[in-house]
Amino acid sequence: MLRDSKAFSGFSTDDIEAARAFYAGVLGLEVTEQMGILTLHLGGDHRAIVYPKPDHQPAGFTVLNFPVADIEKAVDELSAAGVRFETYPGTPMETDAKGIFRGGGPLIAWFTDPAGNVLSVIQD
């Protein structure tokens, strides 16, 4: 029944204007707004929505992953734009000084949006 549906994901924020500034200005995504809800236009004609929620609590998991060809370059460029990467010291997900997890599986680096939602760049 839903096989051909163009599904999309969504997550909340406590500040739509801060979210717009981050996703458009810092990450460089195309962002549109309709009825107070942001649409993030992603590669491959994919999208995600960001909606306001007064009692927002950041998700305890990664809400959006950005596949990249070169994680070192992506981390360097995002860092230069002001993005701070998570390090998770003393955990199984501990990263190097740049914020890249190299402990097995794909190379990945996590960061948060202004509302504390966890995002990542992951080497494709």
Report on the structure:
This protein is an alpha/beta fold and 124 residues long. 17% of the residues lie in helices and 35% in strands. The model has no long low-confidence stretch (mean pLDDT 95).
Concise overview:
The chain is α/β, with parallel strands linked by helices and 124 residues long. It has helices at 16-26, 71-80, and strands spanning 9-13, 30-34, 37-42, 46-52, 62-68, 100-101, 108-112, 118-123. The longest helix is centred in the N-terminal third of the chain and has 11 residues, at 16-26.
Radius of gyration over C-alpha positions, nearest whole angstrom = 15 Å
Mean pLDDT: 95
Distance between the termini: 31 Å
By secondary-structure content and strand pairing, the structural class works out as alpha/beta
Q: What is the count of β-strands?
A: 8
The largest β sheet comes out as:
4 strands, mixed
Sequence of strands across the biggest β-sheet = 1-4-3-2
Could you name the ranges where pLDDT drops below 50 across 5 or more consecutive residues? none
Give, in order, the helices and strands. EHEEEEHEEE
Strand content: 25-35%
Tell me the layout of helices and strands.
Layout: E1 9-13, H1 16-26, E2 30-34, E3 37-42, E4 46-52, E5 62-68, H2 71-80, E6 100-101, E7 108-112, E8 118-123
Parallel strand pairs: 1-4, 5-8
Antiparallel strand pairs: 2-3, 3-4, 6-7, 7-8
